Amino acid sequence: MREFTTNRRLFTADIVLLIGAAYISFVLRLESLDLAKYWLGFALFAAMATIITPALFYRAGIYAQYWRYASINELFRMALAITAVAITAETLLLAADWLLPEVDLIPQSVPAIFLLLALPMTATPRMLRRLEFPYKLRRRDASGAERVLVVGAGDAGESIARDLRQRHPQGRELIGFIDDDPAKNNIRIHGVPVLGDRYAIPRLVQAHEVRQVIIAVPSAAGKAIREIVSICEGAGVETKIIPGLSELLDGTVNISMLRDVQIDDLLRREPIHTDTTGVSDLIRGRRVLVTGGGGSIGSELCRQILHFEPAELLVLGHGENSVFTIQNELLQHVRKSGNSTCRIDARIADLRFLERIGTIFEEYRPEIVFHAAAHKHVPLMELNPVEAITNNILGTRNLLQASLAAGIAQFVMISTDKAVNPTSVMGSSKRVAELLVHHAAKLTGKPYVAVRFGNVLGSRGSVVLTFKQQIAAGGPVTVTHPEMRRFFMTIPEAVQLTLQASVLGHGGEVFTLDMGEPVKIVDLARDMIELSGLKVGRDIDIVFSGMRPGEKLYEELFLPDEEYRRTQHQKIFISHNASSLVPANLLDSIATLEDAAMRNDAECIRHVLARLAKYGQPAPQAEQEVQERAVGELRAVTVGR
Q: What is the pLDDT of residue 526?
């Protein structure tokens, strides 16, 4: 109601100001206050300006604008309206000169002068209204608001600053920006200065009694975030962050997105640039099946595949609750987006039953298969090798047989870095599954490929979730070995690269995702404890419990015989000779594994895996040396005391 009253007053002001602009235009042109000779022309021109301009303002929504949130767009619309008036006047003037050459109504330069005067005169009261609001905020901020710094003087930082001032002023007072770019030092954004780089944070926190630092750099790598968080912890100030680029679905940033810094942020890598056109061409309008669709990777595959508008998406899984959850999420997304052309279906099925899988393929006739279903827990599979064989190997064999029978055009299997020089039954079973995919690619010549990557943050059974539970319980946090290292990616990042790799495949390749640098698990544990506001050794201990069966200190990404190189995508490697590594007796060995599994013969299973996947081979020399150096550290050692 208040803004309606304001715009009504602005309408009245426009009438007065437009008449004033018309009068001043004549005075400047004639260099005289006496308009006796042109009084008729002035009256006609002023009438036209005060009728046409407000009418155009109304059509452009100028009188519906909430001026405390106005931007350059509103000024641009006002300028267009006034320009239209000036052009109309000039056109009519030229027509009058042509029709009535003896009548001199208006000097020809008056419309141009009017154009230069009318815009600033009508814009001034609106901009005063726009500037009035931040002024009120500054006065209000002085009364006990929480003082904050924003790290990042870019687009995201500007959005946060604007949102802080306009929508959430009562709780925070923005003191300034922090940015490592020297060129931005001392510049002002919305009147707020850039006060220095990240190393100035402790000084500024003390000088201005800052209570909170907001990290507003969605493209920042984890290393930079880790350092900023460490500086803030040292300065005793709370840290908040906006999501990374992969989480900003529409690119917009606002204050409601602020959250605590999470472990994903500390491990964040540079943004991935995806060939969305290639992925879209692969998926749009086709029938896609995802196995393990209720799992961490499978469900994210479904979300991202849906973005590319398949004709049908079939979620296949064994756990009914997880499949039910992701199906409902996908259906809700389809309803909200209005993409009624995509059909979402779900089926509960066990890959170990070939007839059941064949029936589903006959019913739905999928064209592309993403195979994410697998048992993935190393210690559990070490104790239950039969399950690893029947699910990971025989399930993959059945799925490939059904795919070959149905003429599936594209097959992508999700593999793991644990399949490289495996020391576990789980890793060995995934390596054999890779070999089955390569064998199928050799038979068909079609793009049947495997995509290999390491641990994903937040997946079920992830060490991150285990650490969270241990921290919530008050500790201790258990780490198996002080030198244990793993590759980590976020789930969206891994799936994004998997879809990209599927476009690059021609058949029989192994694609390996660039996982960055491996992370020490003990460092991960320490970071998670500190992000919870606790101190290692004071509040929670880290205890080394010893390596579990099947584990190794380091994961590797490539087999010794694989010839790998980077693809045109900088984050994806390809092993183009993977199909040549398929042993001639693969299917016979699979039959032996199947027979051993039916007999629950764990010893035979391990023997065949040792031959097929080099399971149980001695650890690489470098890893042996590390283990020898750390033997003395595995006596229930506590970190931090």
A: 86
Question: And the tokens for 33?
Answer: 């206050």
CB-based contacts of 613: which residues, under 8 Å, 6+ apart? Answer: 419, 422, 427, 428, 429, 431, 432, 435
The one-letter amino acid at 102:
E
Phi, psi of 428 (to 5 degrees): -65, -40
- Spatial contact of 347 and 316, defined as CB atoms under 8 Å apart: yes
CA distance 81 to 115: 10
The position carrying tokens 């390491």 is 454
> Which tokens sit at 269?
């890598």
**Omega of the bond leading into 476 within 30 degrees of 0 (cis):** yes
Confidence check: pLDDT of 12 > 50? yes
CA 129 to mean position of chain CA atoms = 37
**7 pLDDT exceeds 80?**
no
Q: What DSSP state is assigned to residue 29?
A: H
pLDDT of residue 362: 93
Neighbours of 526 (CB within 10 A): 20
Nearest to 83 by CA among 108, 53, 105, 106: 53
**Residue 358's beta-bridge partner residues?**
none
Alpha-carbon span 278 to 410, nearest angstrom: 14
**H or E stretch including 450?**
strand 448-453
Token readout for 40 is: 């008729």
SS3 category, 399: helix
Q: How many residues does the chain have?
A: 641
Tokens of 339: 């993409």
Helix (H) or strand (E) holding 260: strand 259-260
- Count helices and strands (H / E) in the chain: 22, 23
Report the C-alpha gap between 165 and 256 in whole angstroms.
Answer: 13
Phi-psi region at 477: left, alpha or beta (left = phi > 0; alpha = psi -120 to 50) = beta
SS (H, E, C) 467-509: HHHHHHCCCCEEECCCCCEECEEEHHHHHHHHHHHHHHCCCCC
Q: What angle do CA 204, 205, 210 make, to 5 degrees?
A: 120
Residues 381, 387: Cα–Cα separation, whole Å: 7
For the stretch 196-246, pLDDT in tens is 888 999 999 988 888 889 888 887 877 888 889 889 888 888 888 887 765
The domains found in the chain, sorted by start residue, are 2-137 (no CATH), 144-266 (3.40.50.720), 374-459+487-516+556-616 (3.40.50.720)
